[in-house]
Amino acid sequence: MASAATSTSRGRPEGSLGDRIGRRVGHLALPVFTSLAIFYLLIPIIVMIVFSFNKPSGKFNYTWNEFSIDGWLHPLDWPGLPESLLASLGVALLATVIATALGTLIGLALTRYAFRGRGLLNGVIFLPMATPELVLGASLLTLFVATALPPLRGNVPTLYPTGFSTILIAHVMFNISYVVVTVKARLAGFDRRLEEAAMDLGANEWVTFWKVTFPLILPGVVAAALLAFALSIDDFIITSFVSGTQNTFPIWVYSIIRNALPVQINVIGSIIFLVAVGYVSLTTIRSAHAQR
Amino acid sequence: MATVTGAAPQPGLRQLIGRAVPYLLLAPGIAWLILFYAIPSLQMFLYSVSTGSLEEGFVLSFTPDAYVKGITQFRTQFGNSLLYGGTATVLTIIIGFPVAYTIAFRGGRYRNLILFMVIAPFFTSFLIRTISWKILLGDEGPLLGPLKHTIGILPGTFTLTGTPVAVVAGLTYNFLPFMILPLYVALEKIDVRLIEAAQDLYATRWGAFRRVTLPLALPGVFAGSILVAIPAMGDFVNAELLGSPQTRMIGNVIQNRFLIQNDYPVAAALSFILMFGILAAVTIYARFLGTERLTG
Amino acid sequence: MIERAMGIGGTALTRRTFLRGSALAGTGAFIAACTGGSTPAPASDAAPTPKTVTGPLKFANWTAYVDLAGAAYDAGVYEPGSSPTLESFKTEYGVEVDYEEKIDGNSSFVETIKPALVGGLATGWDLIILTDWMASKLVDSGWTEKIDQDNVPNCTANLRDALRNAAWDPNNDYHYPWQSGMTGIGYNATAFSDNGLTAPTKLADLWSVPPDKLTFLDEARDTFGLTLLKLGIEPDPAKVTADDLQKVADDIQPLVDGGLRFTGNSYLQDFGQKKVWAAYVWSGDLASSAGEDDFFVFPEEGTMIWTDDMLIPKGAANKYTAELMMNYVYDVAIAAQIAAYVYYVSPVKGTAEAILELDPDAASNDLLFPGDEIVAKQRNFQSLSTELEDKMNELFATLSGL
């Protein structure tokens, strides 16, 4: 795409030398700015990785003391850490799958169909995002408590004491709207004539959806799923209300950091980060090969 | 026989199914939101017009007292939320737009990699990131330490943490990816030939950008602003970890009234004021950008 | 507040009033849960708890408040972050202990379990540790399990006399103290000398530190109590007036304008980062968990004294195991092991002698065994009247911008 842009600009009259220099600088400015912005986003991660090789002098891994790979040799060596990590990954994966499915369906309905209440729903769907997280958490907790008491007790599934399942419910709830918004942004310019063409050619709605619609909205769905996973694995505020005595990784980190900042936190953070980097690099390389 | 008579009722059935489709698509997600968002929210609303406490029980008196108190007593904190959240949103657009543009049009085969780096911060815990920020902005940290002692342009008592600057920096940092992602999604859809054609027509890059790229990117700007402004204005963690009592946002008040002071009516009323304030802002913003373009 | 929570008849009435007004069944149910359940269930002493060890014991505590690793970890005996006391308890009784540093403030923790307590449901915790004033509220509300004294012989034998006969639970039916401590000044010696300040000896000295290098405590009793002392007002809950509290707020307000912050245990992070030069702190934390140039000072004006208590919240699943834990930490050797690490005042008789073997220096440490001069200046600002507490909370909320 970049090469196509350059070739056409070459076709136009070039203008003065100043223009050309300006264009050259302009051409460089964007990548440089982007690199700086990415650096800004990555600084804390760099700090995290560097400090995973620290041997802190006290209980807080705040200041550089001495190079050590102890943390990497014993990455789970802190009571409660492995359990909380497993819980976090489980919640994030399940919540992503459920919320992406539910949210994409709503997104499709909102952009592709006319139905009564569509305009209202378009606005209402933003409400969960407009609600402060702590209000979502607090009000959910009150609901969960209510299910354990008459008159609801026995008539509905009991969701108290809170734990893994209530965290999952909460995470799906707050993720749905984010998925809808992201999928909608993708669908906003969707050309329905493509679907109509497919139907004209004899495909039924089901085939049309999987062969035409889905591939077109897939980048939006993937972006939405990434967002949902990121929001879920990272959530602290809502989870703190509905987790009861079940720890997730952020909840565990929050209670441990008041007293100690174990190097294991950095190691686990770095491992998750590096695994993700490895995965994305692999798929990037593979798709680059495929394109060739 | 089925093949003969089947033709007549089929359109009717089809139409019926066709009409039901959107509702079927909506049903599971909306049911989830009704159960776990709408009903708890209604409870919160009832709190906001009640008096009492958890121990005594709440009496539904339909009094607006909590709203009156919320508006009169916490002007500063509402102001801070608007100021810090708004500044952070503008900053994320300024920083995020060029980045999203670069990824969409200049990313080439590295596009996925750069995109990944944008969301990379999310693969570490929010708390770890904020701890890292505290280290970076710390009084003797890697940023201020050299400026104070090696270069010596800052006095020894200079501090960033606890100031509005630190809070806004934290908000901008934490929500920047929420701006870049939807901007990218919107920009990526743009047919590059449109821009080329525009460049041929308007001759300058700026003209092409302003008249073609920018309008087409507006849905992304809108979605990004929503994704940033709402959590930023409702945030309390950044103000809590990087601020001081002087930099309290309304989220801090709500959290505290809810959890520490056990003042459910005022906490709930403040939540609703915040929510409706944000809704009003979003509506005005959508009008300003042009609703038609946004909803497609 | 306590009296109001006990007003059972009134509660039922408000609930009915509410139910009539509420259209939504689910909401009504919730409110019913909130109010109806507050009728305290009769104490469960009638049915003795079966004496079987069950687990895991869910134990919620404050930060840096048990012998986490320490010398044993350095010697490679225990994995990092674990506690010799808890490990030996697990081995001795063959039960898991899920120990979590979940408590960062009395109110903030109690609010997380209050819906369950009010609704008469299990909180998920078996053993929690709260400061006197909050512990007494829970006990008064009937939200704690009655301790079977037969299961805690160490406690009955070894509790220090000074801590017996607490007005709110004279027979220790519901609580045993965990540790006592004092609130005073903490400061970083390097920061003070680098900036030409002399080490603080009295509370008033903190007012000459740049306010943005200063933190006070978000436990309002500590911050108001100490500042009353600074102003020369006797912090006696029976004598303090609303005007006195107002004077405190007026004295602190300029500091807030200059960037003063309020924290819980997280001042340990701030000291770790050299972000604060001085602070109101709890006595043991700096010694157990901060840097070598961070010190606790007993201010000339005096200190606040308080006691944190072990409680078994109503409906605890592993009550007998919780009692075993109470009993276990009242074993003199174990108490000494904990005290030698946390640097707080142990409630267990004979700790001083036992600690000599572990850490000869500790026995003469004023943090663990306050001298007479210090004891004479200790003030207890715990049991405030409802009016005074409401006034203090209101002033504190304004100060902290909340």
Please describe what this structure looks like:
The complex is a heterotrimer of chains A (292), B (296) and C (402). Chain A is built from 13 helices and no strands. Chain A has 292 residues and is mainly α. In chain A, helix 4 (81-112) packs antiparallel against helix 10, helix 4 (81-112) packs across helix 12 and helix 8 packs across helix 10 (205-234). The longest helix of chain A has 35 residues, at 17-51. Chain A starts with a helix and ends with a helix. Chain B is mainly α. Chain B is built from 14 helices and 2 strands. Chain B has helices spanning 2-5, 9-48, 65-73, 75-106, 111-119, 126-137, 144-149, 164-189, 192-202, 205-234, 237-242, 250-259, 264-289, 291-295, and strands at residues 50-53, 57-60. In chain B, strands 1-2 form a two-stranded antiparallel ribbon. Chain B starts with a helix and ends with a helix. The model of chain B is unreliable at 1-8 (pLDDT under 50). With 402 residues, chain C is an alpha/beta fold. Helices cover 41% and strands 15% of the residues of chain C. Chain C is built from 18 helices and 10 strands. Chain C has helices at residues 2-6, 8-21, 25-36, 71-74, 84-93, 106-118, 132-140, 153-158, 189-194, 220-230, 242-257, 267-272, 285-289, 319-329, 332-342, 351-358, 372-376, 386-399; strands at residues 57-62, 97-103, 127-131, 175-188, 214-217, 261-263, 278-282, 294-297, 303-311, 378-379. The longest helix of chain C has 16 residues, at 242-257. The radius of gyration of chain C is 22 Å and the shape is globular. The model of chain C is unreliable at 1-46 (pLDDT under 50). Chains A and B meet through helix 1, helix 2, helix 4, helix 5 and helix 6 of A and helix 2, helix 4, helix 5, helix 6 and helix 8 of B.
Give the DSSP E fraction of chain A (strand runs of 2 or more residues): under 5%
The biggest beta sheet of chain A is recorded as: none
CATH overall fold name of chain A? MetI-like fold
Number of domains of chain B: 1
CATH fold node name of chain B: MetI-like fold
Instruction: Compute the number of helices of chain A.
Output: 13
Helix content of chain B: over 70%
- What Rg of chain A is obtained from the alpha carbons, in whole angstroms? 25 Å
- Terminal-residue CA separation of chain B: 45 Å
Oligomer state of the chains in this structure: heterotrimer
Shape of chain A: flat
Order of helices and strands of chain B: HHEEHHHHHHHHHHHH
From the N-terminal CA to the C-terminal CA of chain A, the straight-line distance is: 14 Å
Give me the CATH architecture of chain A, please.
Answer: Orthogonal Bundle
The chain pair with the largest interface is: A-B, 104 and 98 residues
